[in-house]
Amino acid sequence: MSARVYRDSYGIPHLRAADPVELARAQGATAARDRAWQLEVERRRALGSSAAFLGPDHLPWDLLARRVRLADTARRCYASLSPGTADWVRAYTDGVNSALPGSAASAPEFADAGIAPG
Questions:
Q1: pLDDT in tens, 21-74
Q2: DSSP code of 9?
Q3: Which of 25, 35, 65, 112 is most buried, most CB within 10 Å of its CB?
Q4: What is the spatial distance between Cα 20 and Cα 89, in angstroms, rounded to a whole number?
Q5: What angle do CA 64, 110, 68 make, to 5 degrees?
């Protein structure tokens, strides 16, 4: 069984899958479809590079994110996950990455900011 995603009359996604990893992949793809811009902004904030496209008001956050090594901390936390949890996170990320390019193409914020998803 592959994951099934359907939306109710309010547009809320409902997901079904045979196992948690398959569900994580579907959840990641759904998140990318619904929140491509938000995911990209938060990714760049974690890297300390958001001021480059959001403007100089965001520089204090970027400096903090770099000083506290936010992205490095996330990588080290991921490396210490149990194998099952790491599989789940990897599947979610794979789902996001599979849907993000197409979702970004239909999100006007990317064109307005002159950036592509990373």
A1: 999 999 999 999 999 999 999 999 999 999 999 999 999 999 999 999 999 999
A2: T
A3: 25
A4: 10
A5: 10
Q: Give the closest residue to 51 by CA, choosing from 66, 62, 41.
A: 62
Token duo for residue 117? 């998803």
Amino acid at the residue 13: P
Statement: the pTM of the whole predicted model exceeds 0.85: yes
4-113 folds as Penicillin Amidohydrolase; domain 1 (1.10.439)
- Cα 42 to its chain centre, rounded Å, is 8
What percentage of the chain reaches a pLDDT higher than 90?
Answer: 92
User: Do you know the residue count of the chain?
Assistant: 118
Helix (H) or strand (E) holding 13: strand 13-16
Phi, psi of 114 (to 5 degrees): 70, 35
CB 23 within 8 A of CB 90: no
